[in-house]
Design brief:
288 residues; alpha+beta; 2 domains; 4-stranded antiparallel sheet; 10 strands
């Protein structure tokens, strides 16, 4: 699933090509007959028809990211919210066999949502009501915002002090945008075992976590995000962060940390924490 750097990369790409463009029509075959098709998303046919009438003729004012969500603000004071989920790609001017949603723009180009598994979600609401919307209203603070700090990180994670730190980092109501890849890389870098109880981790480690978190997220953004799975940016291109993984997806490989290289027992392992995978080095990542 695209995480903060991937969604950020998509948004930055879209800003330069769709802002100021008018949506002339919308097409979709996202409608599904399962329980997902009954929810208040465009997978519900009645909801889609409301959505189509709402966005048709509206101009795109701006695009931003909130957590793992893409927010497209319109001139009619509505915002539509796209969560790409597992295999979704929001792209401009790209043709793809898995396209299930097309925004036709006045310049004859299309903004499309490609999604092989049809897990992506698209909803809308009044822009002024975004903070109360179920998709973004309960999200935690942004790790790269100017107001975020080591102290804020500690405060947020202590809300889940009885949880494993891996799970606490993945809780979007605690911290917005972190997923499996970056939680693994962050914990590897600071030497904390993913099963460590959040409340038992020494407080000074959260200052280190804050710095490492920002460093890794910014580094990934610099390299266009992570395409180890199938992420594509706004123009259908892959990112490169997967070429810099230290631990994620490295099960049974030697830990690359200088103090662990060629040492017995420093082989990357994988375990499942509350249903989510975690990769770690049993040699240098301490369990608190």
């Amino acid at each position: 699933m695209p995480e903060l750097p991937e969604v950020h990369t998509t948004v930055e790409g879209l800003k330069g090509v769709i802002v100021g463009k008018t949506i002339t029509d919308v097409w979709s075959d996202f409608h599904v007959g399962t329980s997902h098709g009954k929810r208040q998303t465009i997978k519900n046919k009645k909801y889609f028809e409301k959505f189509r009438k709402l966005v048709k003729g509206a101009k795109i004012k701006s695009v931003e990211r909130r957590g793992k969500n893409i927010l497209v603000h319109l001139s009619n004071d509505y915002t539509f919210i796209v969560h790409m989920k597992m295999t979704g790609h929001l792209m401009y001017g790209v043709k793809d066999k898995f396209v299930h949603l097309i925004f036709k723009l006045k310049n004859s180009q299309n903004l499309v949502l490609s999604d092989m598994r049809k897990f992506a979600s698209v909803t809308f609401c009044k822009t002024e009501g975004l903070e109360k919307h179920e998709t973004v209203g309960k999200l935690g603070p942004e790790p790269l915002s100017k107001s975020f700090s080591a102290e804020k990180l500690l405060t947020q994670l202590q809300k889940r002090k009885s949880w494993p730190i891996k799970s606490a980092l993945l809780d979007q109501t605690v911290l917005a945008g972190i997923g499996n890849i970056y939680s693994d890389e962050i914990l590897w870098e600071i030497g904390i075992h993913p099963l460590s109880h959040t409340g038992k981790i020494p407080k000074n480690k959260f200052g280190e976590m804050f710095k490492v978190m920002q460093k890794i997220l910014r580094f990934s953004i610099k390299h266009g995000g992570d395409s180890k799975s199938d992420y594509l940016n706004a123009f259908g291109k892959k990112g490169n962060f997967q070429n810099f993984h230290k631990v994620y997806g490295k099960r049974k490989e030697q830990c690359p940390k200088p103090g662990c290289r060629n040492k017995k027992g420093a082989i990357i392992e994988r375990l499942v924490v509350k249903g989510r995978s975690a990769h770690f080095c049993p040699k240098h990542q301490i369990k608190f």
